[in-house]
Design brief:
6 helices, 75% helix, two-stranded antiparallel sheet
């Protein structure tokens, strides 16, 4: 149900707020998953798994990646890949956005959920977080796609026996 205030602007309901939170959390998870895939692909190339597959070691690497926090993964990747300053800032910004969402979003907004204006502010905050997270997910997705192309190219260049 859409509720409007006296000037005709939409007022966010609790259900709309909760839905926006869920949609934003999905964007955060998409980024985390894509970023983990990118870290795994870098690890695979470092270890030559495109030449000699090692499924057991790849599984161990994936388990380690999944056990790390996003912040820790960013640190691991910085030690392996050189990003330009802009890209490094985007990843750091995404980490902050994800942390703002997952660690105390409702606490920071406190009792704002109790009023129409407060919910509107909360939804606006979520819209900003969502956009930031979607943009960086697209960047990470592009990096992962580039790594997949590189792996395919390297596999096609490996000597035949």
């Amino acid at each position: 149900m859409i509720v409007k205030n006296v000037i005709g602007a939409n007022i966010a309901t609790r259900d709309e707020l909760y839905a926006k939170f869920g949609i934003t959390a999905e964007a955060a998870q998409l980024f985390e998953t894509e970023f983990g895939t990118f870290v795994l692909s870098v690890t695979a190339i470092e270890n030559g798994w495109h030449v000699t597959p090692e499924p057991a070691n790849a599984r161990k690497a994936l388990d380690q990646i999944e056990a790390h926090t996003l912040g820790r993964l960013l640190g691991v990747l910085k030690g392996k890949v050189a990003f330009d300053e802009h890209l490094a800032e985007r990843f750091a910004s995404a980490l902050k956005a994800r942390n703002r969402l997952n660690h105390g979003f409702y606490e920071r907004h406190n009792i704002a959920i109790q009023s129409d204006e407060g919910r509107d502010i909360m939804v606006a905050d979520l819209e900003e977080l969502h956009e930031d997270l979607l943009q960086v997910w697209r960047i990470a997705s592009g990096l992962t796609a580039a790594m997949a192309e590189l792996v395919m190219q390297l596999q096609s260049e490996k000597p035949t026996e």
